[in-house]
Amino acid sequence: MLFFSYFKDLVGREVTVELKNDLAIRGTLHSVDQYLNIKLENTRVVDQDNYPHMLSVRNCFIRGSVVRYVQLPPDGVDIELLHDATRREARGG
Amino acid sequence: MNHCNALTSLKPDAVALKKLLVLLRDGRKLLGILRSFDQFANAVLEGACERVIVGDLYCDLPLGLYVIRGENVVLIGELDLEKEELPQHMTRVSAAEIKRAQKAEREATDLKGTMRKRMEFLDLD
């Protein structure tokens, strides 16, 4: 539940989601759910030329299971807070 | 009942039925109208077609009513009707021609693979 809460706090920020099939999509985080499925708005594909079928896609739903990375703005993370929360979660379980 | 909240806003309302693009794990691109979904991202696509793209050629193969198992879904995208779905330089061709192009691409990839295998003894990288 930790990362679900963390992503909920990031709603409205610009992120780049890199998928396991190497597709990378930049967009505004619209919503996230318990499976870490992601909905992005105002999307642009990073390497557009290799993905012509994505040209007119501006909003998309991404299944959580296919995400490799979620790239965040440098000021998107309070690293100490996240570190502490993770330690607590690991201890408490 | 657990709901796939992120998907909820993609479900079309009665007035505007949106054409969606579904990317599958095997690389296929399906287009159609989303009629149903659940918490696993299982989906029902009406009037589905598969958009096959080989280089600058493309073809839409009609499929009809499809039920997609959620584990195969990579992405569901909403196509902006005011924008071009594909770049201008791409040409629409017939099913027969796209199948020929797919075969040619497959053979080229296989050839590239065998050539690489033959060069392996050189131990370049």
From TrEMBL, chain A:
Component of LSM protein complexes, which are involved in RNA processing. It comes from Ilex paraguariensis (yerba mate). Residues 2-76 form the Sm domain. Its main location: nucleus. Keywords: mRNA processing, mRNA splicing, Nucleus, Ribonucleoprotein, RNA-binding, Spliceosome. GO terms for cellular component: spliceosomal complex. GO terms for biological process: mRNA splicing, via spliceosome. Belongs to the snRNP Sm proteins family. It holds the Pfam family LSM. This is Sm-like protein LSM2. It is found in: Nucleus. Transmembrane segments: none annotated. CDD domains: LSm2.
From TrEMBL, chain B:
It comes from the Eukaryota. GO terms for biological process: cold acclimation; hyperosmotic salinity response; mRNA processing. SMART domains: Sm. One of its GO terms (cellular component) is P-body. Pfam families: LSM. GO terms for molecular function: RNA binding. InterPro entries: Lsm1, LSM_dom_sf, PTHR15588, Sm, Sm_dom_euk/arc. It is found in: Cytoplasm; Cytoplasm, P-body. Keywords: Cytoplasm, mRNA processing, Ribonucleoprotein, RNA-binding. Residues 7-82 form the Sm domain. Component of the cytoplasmic LSM1-LSM7 complex which is involved in mRNA degradation by promoting decapping and leading to accurate 5'-3' mRNA decay. LSM1A and LSM1B are essential for the formation of the cytoplasmic LSM1-LSM7 complex which regulates developmental gene expression by the decapping of specific development-related transcripts. Required for P-body formation during heat stress. Component of the heptameric LSM1-LSM7 complex that forms a seven-membered ring structure with a donut shape. Belongs to the snRNP Sm proteins family. PANTHER family: LSM1 (PTHR15588), U6 SNRNA-ASSOCIATED SM-LIKE PROTEIN LSM1 (PTHR15588:SF8). This is U6 snRNA-associated Sm-like protein LSm1. It comes from Ilex paraguariensis (yerba mate). The gene is LSM1.
